[in-house]
Write a structure and sequence with these properties.
The complex is a heterodimer of chains A (388) and B (465). With 388 residues, chain A is of the alpha/beta class. Helix content of chain A is 16%, strand content 43%. The chains are: A alpha/beta (388), B alpha/beta (465).
């Protein structure tokens, strides 16, 4: 077991002032594993295959099957970067190196050509108190296949540990994937949820991320829209209550003609909750007719919260349309007044607004049981005054 | 749309130069000996000599930024930090030496003074060569003078109290460099309650090849007072690097208002690593109007510290990056007082391989309850060999704040061009009109004659195919 204290993850796509402490996320504790995860599916639908691989086999599969990405060495055409990857993920090279060093096993799930799944595939991982473990998976959606996958992972409320989810997704031509990542780990967990996706021509990905549990949570996603017309629609909901911290790094890289990417982030911070968000729309030369947008809404509910937001647009192509917006603050006076005029007190109004924010993602998750559980989880977190 | 006819800025009116015969020029490079020599040349008080040497130590200790545009082409060993024309500062235009006078005549400075300014300072290389303020403004008690003579006069202690306090040399490497080798610049003091109706202006001209300009502008607008200050800068083009590392420190006292307008048009061999910062007290208003057109590389982010309750700041800026230009510009707002408010509105345009980066930060500190901040930035790409990046950061440490941000990037819409052409315009004319309209947020904030200068700068010629 090697010691990986304080690795940096989620490097921003273009550096800015170091004083702002937003260029990367830094782990506060060692990243050491003590548990091997073994994945097995009770039954898989027709057209879906599961294969267990070693780390090296997984890397070889990526090298042989993933569409070529530019292996990048600079930040926004300016500075050399130190986290280049053959297949880019949001949290970046240092985490990948740790997983390689630990020899984490990789699971490959393949959805066959033209296969259209009628029900979501639920990939559930239950972590226990004291677990320090990583799960590496590759989702391969072949040509014109369609699937919904839910990565559902959590633990007991008071559990302590480390959970790393390292997910790479390859969408072939015309493939469609709805991928939901649902995190409800215990209050003393460290969570690293890392994703990388590559989209071939006409492929479409819808990403849903509900980041609710764990003490420190680092999430990253990089989507490479390589083929013409590839599209991405991402939504994330998160909360940071008590002493929770969230560190988020999302990159949408638009390379192909007519690609489109849009991300929405809805978050609520309360108590001493802390959050750093980096989101990038990256228009590459040749992405003619591309469209990219990102929007972040943050609701601040306590005087001691800390919110960092860095929404970036990088652009080297003329024929594109890009926008980003952010709205950070308290509940509006107008809203509270309206609610009061309807007999709703401030506390209840707050609860309604929190529910509305987080439900933007929860309601889209294609499984009723999971939706119910997430609603209960967030209700409990916000009613727990011991945190404040 | 096959034709892309928006041309680069026509810089020919700025690109003339005179020789340096009879000039005093310090040896290139940076060492304690050179700093001592500058200090002697400038007859510094002892505290300033020590300040310079301490700043040099800080400079040697600090690294260059790891973000922003590359500055590899800048080698301090090749830069002369002090170049002085063989003339004293004049208060009569006729007494200014001919070469220098011609320079400013060609730039239209004395004409502007006659017509619409309350006072003018003109700096040529490292020293002010001309300074004048209208009698009626002086009679109001307004002080507008060069910083060096103010150091020894009745405002000496005031300068000591304020000089490099809001931009300490420890801030970054080029602030430290400035602290070590600063020369020239202006000191303005507007007494309590005095409203200066027409603007004051400083113009900075760097004529010398391979040299640096490090002027320091210190403005104090006392309680309830009001001032509009304009600075302009230009230089002829050389094939070696020139450096501008000026420093502007602005103090806006209780209920005072200061508007600071800049039209920057350095030549394309200039590294413009400039620092501007304002400290605004209770109820004070700071307004920045900033046009960045010139230089090879720029790092420019005017910063406003909204310290007093109810302080307010607006920043309006436009940046135009053409061939061989990498302009990294924006603004910073730091909210400390309660109920403070800020608004940033910027436009970036890039073409012919130019790189334009909008970079900003808005910080709402925990004490800034009731703060409101809004950022709006637009970028226009005129071709696909250029690059435009938008990097706005927001740090919020209280829930009692409202922060909004919006940014867009795009190109000139074919529909808009088509519409204007259907009204009888040539395509080039239509594109130019759209670009001028895009930048009009800034030009409409400038006094008329400067708006005209800016429109000349964005002189979007139509001849190329």
């Amino acid at each position: 077991m090697s010691d990986h204290t304080g690795i940096r993850v989620g490097h921003v796509s273009a550096l800015t002032w170091n004083k702002l402490k937003i260029n990367y996320g830094q782990l506060r504790r060692d990243l050491v594993f003590n548990t091997d995860l073994s994945v097995s599916f009770r039954s898989l639908p027709a057209g879906v295959a599961h294969k267990k691989m070693t780390w090296d086999q997984g890397q070889a599969w990526i090298a042989g099957n993933a569409p070529a990405q530019e292996r990048e060495y600079t930040v926004a055409g300016k500075f050399p970067i130190y986290h280049e990857q053959a297949f880019a993920t949001g949290l970046g090279r240092e985490l990948e190196d740790v997983l390689a060093g630990e020899g984490v096993r990789t699971d490959l799930l393949t959805i066959g050509e033209g296969v259209k799944l009628t029900a979501p595939l639920i990939w559930q991982i239950r972590f226990h108190d004291g677990n320090q473990a990583a799960s590496s998976q590759i989702l391969h959606v072949k040509e014109n296949a369609e699937a919904e996958v839910i990565l559902d992972y959590g633990s007991d409320k008071d559990a302590e540990g480390i959970a790393v989810l390292f997910t790479r997704v390859v969408l072939e031509k015309g493939a469609r994937l709805k991928l939901a990542a649902v995190q409800t780990l215990g209050r003393s967990y460290i969570h690293l949820g890392d994703m990388g996706l590559s989209l071939a021509e006409g492929a479409g990905a819808e990403i849903l991320a509900a980041d609710f549990g764990a003490e420190d949570s680092y999430t990253g996603i990089q989507v490479e829209q390589i083929g013409a017309g590839a599209s991405l629609n991402g939504r994330m909901a998160y909360m940071a209550v008590g002493n929770q911290t969230r560190d988020i790094n999302y990159n949408s890289v638009l390379r192909g003609k007519g690609t489109s990417g849009s991300f929405t982030f809805d978050g609520v911070l309360r108590d001493q909750g802390r959050k750093a968000f980096r989101g990038t729309i990256d228009f590459r030369r040749g992405a003619r007719g591309a469209f990219g947008s990102e929007l972040e809404n943050v609701l601040l509910l306590s005087p001691e919260v800390t919110n960092r937001t860095l929404p970036i647009i990088l652009c080297e192509e003329e024929d594109v349309e890009g926008s980003h917006g952010a709205s950070i603050g308290r509940l509006s006076e107008d809203m509270l007044f309206y609610m009061a005029s309807r007999g709703i007190d401030e506390k209840t109004a707050e609860r309604i607004m929190v529910r509305a924010r987080l439900d933007t993602v929860i309601r889209e998750i294609p499984d009723e049981k999971i939706r119910k559980r997430l609603r209960a989880f967030t209700e409990e977190a916000f009613s727990d005054e011991s945190l404040s | 749309m096959a034709n892309r006819k928006v041309a680069d800025i026509d810089r020919s009116i700025y690109d003339f130069r005179y020789g340096e015969e009879d000039f005093y020029r310090i040896q290139s490079g940076l060492s304690p000996e050179i700093v001592e020599k500058i200090s002697r040349e400038k007859h510094d008080p002892e505290w300033m000599r020590e300040f310079r040497l301490q700043s040099l130590e800080i400079y040697n200790r600090l690294g260059v930024p790891n973000w922003g545009a590359p500055i590899d082409g800048l080698n301090m060993e090749d830069i002369a930090t002090y170049v002085r024309a063989n003339t004293d500062m004049k208060t009569s235009w006729e007494e200014v030496p001919d070469d220098i006078k011609n320079t400013f005549e060609r730039l239209g400075i004395p004409q502007a003074e006659r017509e619409s300014l309350a006072g003018v300072g003109a700096q040529y290389d490292s020293e002010l060569v001309y300074h004048n303020v209208k009698d009626e403004v002086a009679a109001q008690g307004v002080i507008y003078t060069d910083l060096e003579s103010a150091l020894w006069g009745e405002y000496g202690q005031m300068i000591r109290d304020y000089f490099m306090k809001v931009v300490p040399p420890t801030d970054h490497k080029f602030a430290a460099l400035h602290g070590a080798v600063w020369s020239g610049g202006s000191f303005v003091y507007v007494p309590k309650g005095v409203k200066v109706d027409i603007p004051l202006q400083s113009y900075f001209r760097l004529n010398a090849k391979g040299a640096g300009q490090f002027e320091h502008t210190l403005i104090i607008v006392d309680e309830g007072a009001d001032l509009h200050f304009i600075e302009g800068c230009s230089a002829p083009k050389y094939n070696v690097a020139n450096l501008h590392a000026g420093c502007v420190e602005l103090y806006v006292k209780k209920n005072a208002r200061l508007r600071y307008s800049t039209i920057e048009n350095w030549s394309k061999n200039m590294y413009n690593l400039n620092t501007k910062r304002a400290l605004v007290e209770e109820g004070g208003i700071m307004e920045w109007v900033s046009g960045s057109f010139g230089s090879h590389v720029s790092y420019l982010y005017p910063t406003t510290i909204l310290k007093g309750d109810g302080a307010h700041c607006e920043f309006t800026g436009v940046t135009f990056a053409g061939q061989d230009q990498n302009l990294d510009t924006g603004a910073k707002m730091i909210h400390i007082g309660r109920d403070t408010s800020s608004f940033i509105n910027t436009k970036s345009i890039c073409k012919s391989g130019g790189v334009s980066t909008y970079r900003s930060s808005v910080e709402i500190r925990r004490s800034a309850e009731g703060a409101r901040a809004a950022v709006s930035c637009g970028s226009l790409m005129l071709d696909s060999i250029s690059r435009s990046d938008t990097i706005p950061a927001m740090l919020v440490e209280t829930d009692k704040a409202d922060v909004g941000h919006e940014a867009t990037i795009g190109r000139i819409s074919d529909e808009a061009v088509f519409y204007l052409m259907s009204r009888g315009m040539e395509e080039e004319e239509a594109r130019a009109m759209i670009v001028s309209g895009f930048a009009s947020d800034v030009s409409k904030e400038l006094p008329l004659e400067y708006a005209v200068e800016m429109n000349n700068l964005i002189k979007l010629e139509m001849e190329m195919g």
